[in-house]
Specification:
mainly alpha; 2 helices; about 0% strand
Length: about 80
């Protein structure tokens, strides 16, 4: 029995992702900001660009993404 009520040997888990928590430590803090700024002002195709920091998914990491990140600052799970 895999404890979800269906005997199929598939284990299911809830997964929560906190927007802006780039280091995965369940809070949005200064460490996450530092990771964000390593990609700041990069564009799709740049070595520093990573879509995880492009919060509005427009191909660039810029002040609009920072505003979104800032709205998450100090939140935690």
């Amino acid at each position: 029995d895999d404890s979800d009520g269906t005997v199929d040997n598939v284990f299911r888990f809830d997964f929560h992702r906190l927007l802006g928590d780039y280091d995965g430590d369940t809070d949005v803090d200064i460490n996450d900001r530092n990771l964000f700024f390593a990609a700041y002002e990069s564009h799709q195709g740049d070595l520093a660009y990573d879509v995880i920091y492009d919060l509005n998914v427009n191909g660039m990491v810029d002040r609009d993404d920072y505003r979104i990140w800032r709205s998450q600052y100090r939140k935690s799970l």
